[in-house]
């Protein structure tokens, strides 16, 4: 139903940083369709990407004692994103034990 140019254009928009929802509205297709085209092309949502520098910065701030909120605010990411990243990367951001008072 949709031509290869339409698919390529949509995938390119997501690759360049547009959200699935925005591309879907612009192109008049469902968000699920955009997700499917991107998955087939091996492209993930830009919001799920962490650069090497971001990973190192988050780990450094965590190891210096910063909270999820502080890290998220400084990086422009959500608290949940920071929490999930740090919990899934204990090799660079070990668990912090809290001493009981």
- Secondary structure: number of strands: 0
Computed over alpha carbons, the radius of gyration is: 18 Å
Span from first to last CA? Answer: 65 Å
Mean pLDDT: 86
The shape, in one word, is: elongated
Q: Major sheet, described briefly?
A: none
How many structural domains in the coordinates?
2
Number of helices: 6
Structural class: mainly alpha
Roughly what percent helix? 55-70%
Spans of at least 5 consecutive residues whose pLDDT stays below 50 are: none
β-strand percent reads under 5%
**SSE order in H/E notation?**
HHHHHH
Write up this protein.
The protein has 101 residues and is mainly α. The protein has 2 domains: 4-48; 50-101. Helix content is 59%, strand content 0%. It is built from 6 helices and no strands. Helix 2 (20-27) crosses helix 3. The relative contact order is 0.10.
């Amino acid at each position: 139903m949709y031509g290869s140019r339409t698919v390529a254009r949509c995938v390119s928009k997501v690759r360049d940083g547009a959200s699935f929802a925005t591309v879907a509205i612009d192109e008049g297709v469902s968000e699920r369709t955009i997700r499917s085209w991107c998955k087939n092309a091996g492209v993930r949502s830009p919001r799920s990407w962490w650069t090497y520098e971001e990973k190192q910065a988050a780990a450094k701030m965590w190891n210096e004692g910063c909270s999820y909120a502080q890290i998220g605010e400084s990086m422009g990411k959500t608290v949940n994103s920071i929490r999930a990243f740090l919990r899934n990367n204990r090799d660079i951001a070990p668990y912090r034990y809290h001493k009981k008072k």
